[in-house]
Amino acid sequence: MSSISIFTIATNRYFEYWKNMVVSADKYLFLFDEVTFHVFTNFDSNLFENELKRVKIVFHLVPDLKWPQATLYRYKYIYEYGTNLESDYFAHIDADMLIVPHNSKPISGLLKEEDVGLVMHPGYWRVNFPERVFFYLKNFKYLLKDILLIIKYGSFGTWCKNRNSKAFVKRSDRKKYFCGAVWFGKKDAILELANELSKLTDLDIELNSIPAWNDESYLNYWATKNKFKNLNPAFCYDENYKNLEYLNPKIIALDKNKL
């Protein structure tokens, strides 16, 4: 059995989303591992902890973070607080996610030989050929959207095109695009990733060159230069995307407009 530390920034209204996510994780997430949630929040409350049967919680008080600091500082916090933890694996999960019943596997079984696992962005994942042809025939708007994406970015995704940003990825390196909501890996590998991207974030803040998609842009910059396990969007399933109908969800991204 491995130990996993899961990090989330959950300030203001996102704290309520996070509480629901943890309750669902207690039932369904990494059932064969020891799980501890580390939440960076401006709330000092563990009243609901008695509802949990399996996972543990550690609270870290942080300032009342506004957008985009609430998402940009994740690498900084993970590196600073994670350095002194003894967990075998680290993970990041956004506050506004929900774990659903699925065939749970140990985290080591998901990663296999790789040190880091990234999840393909649900909006830009497409089923392989020949099934993709039938998908486009049924959903012609997706074909038009994909053509426009390739013209604009050179690939699926919303890549950082700002050459002044440290998250900039040249067109020829834009391959598969990953989400910033869920990612995980071995402790040392995640600490190295978080330290590198924290430094790049600080440089962009100083130069006022923050990429449009914030932390996700830095993660995709990292993905173009490193090896990792490529996971499908079952780990970041969005019920609004027809392209995901081929997958069985494990982690769902909440539609906050419906809450």
How are the SSEs ordered, and which strands pair?
Elements: E1 3-9, H1 14-28, E2 34-41, E3 56-61, H2 69-72, H3 74-82, E4 89-93, E5 97-99, H4 107-111, E6 116-120, H5 131-138, H6 140-153, E7 178-186, H7 187-207, H8 214-223, E8 229-231, E9 251-253
Parallel strand pairs: 1-2, 1-4, 2-3, 6-8
Antiparallel strand pairs: 4-7, 5-9, 6-7
Helix pairs in contact: 3-7, 5-6, 7-8
Spatial strand order of the main sheet: 3-2-1-4-7-6-8
Structural class: alpha/beta
CATH fold label: Spore Coat Polysaccharide Biosynthesis Protein SpsA, Chain A
* Regions with little confidence, pLDDT below 50 for 5+ residues: none
Order of helices and strands: EHEEHHEEHEHHEHHEE
CATH class value: Alpha Beta
Biggest sheet character:
7 strands, mixed
Task: Provide the number of structural domains.
Answer: 1
Radius of gyration from the CA trace? 18 Å
* Average pLDDT level: 94
Shape: globular
SS field, number of helical segments: 8
Quickly give the CATH architecture: Alpha-Beta Complex
For the record, what is the CATH homologous superfamily label? Spore Coat Polysaccharide Biosynthesis Protein SpsA, Chain A
Count of distinct strands: 9
As a percent range, the share of helical residues equals 25-40%
How many angstroms does the end-to-end distance come to? 36 Å
Q: Strand share of the residues?
A: 15-25%
Commentary on this structure:
Helix content is 33%, strand content 19%. Helix 1 links the parallel strand 1 and strand 2. It has helices at 14-28, 69-72, 74-82, 107-111, 131-138, 140-153, 187-207, 214-223, and strands at residues 3-9, 34-41, 56-61, 89-93, 97-99, 116-120, 178-186, 229-231, 251-253. 40% of the residues are buried. It is α/β, with parallel strands linked by helices and 259 residues long. It has one domain: Spore Coat Polysaccharide Biosynthesis Protein SpsA, Chain A (Alpha-Beta Complex). The protein is globular and about 50 Å long. Strands 3-2-1-4-7-6-8 form a seven-stranded mixed beta sheet, with helices on both faces. The longest helix has 21 residues, at 187-207. The protein starts with a strand and ends in a 6-residue tail after the last strand. The protein is built from eight helices and nine strands.
